[in-house]
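Notebook entry, structure prediction.
Reason for the run: the old model in the group folder had no record of what sequence produced it. Starting over properly, with the input documented here first.
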Amino acid sequence: MTTLDQITVRVLKYDGSESRRWQASVSRQEEGLIVLDAQFEADVQHDLLGKISRGTRTIEYYWLDRWYNVFRFLESSGATKLFYCNVNLPPVISDRTLTYIDLDIDVLVEPNFGYRILDLEEFEENSTRYDYPQQLKAQAHAAVDQLISLIKTRQFPFA
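New structure, fully documented this time:
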C-alpha cells in the first residue's frame, strides 16, 4: 500500500459476523502501524456520543501487534474532539481490507485526557456467549491497562 490508498475496514464479532464496514484512506504506514483517514458515510446514533453526523472525520491508528486501536475524532476545524479506543484482536490486512475482531471494551478519552472505560458488561456477556478463552480475556484487560498508561503519560497518539 502507498500513501492515500483506499482500504476497507471491517469490524467483526468474535463469531465472525460483520458488525460494521467503511472506506478509509491510508495516510501513513510504518513498521507495525497503519494510520487511516476516514469520514462517517452516514449519520450514526451512538449510545454515549449521541449523533455522529455524516462527514465526521476520524484519524484511526491500528497496530498490527496490539490488542486495541485508537480513533481520533476531529472537529470541523481539525482540532481533536475526543479519542475513542476499541479493544480488539490485532488486525489483519488482506486484499486492501483491514479486518479486526471487536472485543466490546472501549475507552473514551476527553480532550482534557480524562477517560472512561465502557462496555465491560457487554464484554462479560459476550465472553460467555462466545466462550472467550481465558488468555483472550487476560489480553483484553491488559490492552485496557496499556491504553490507560498511554493516556496518563500522553504517549502517541495521545501526545
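Summary: The radius of gyration is 15 Å.
The old model has been moved to the deprecated folder.
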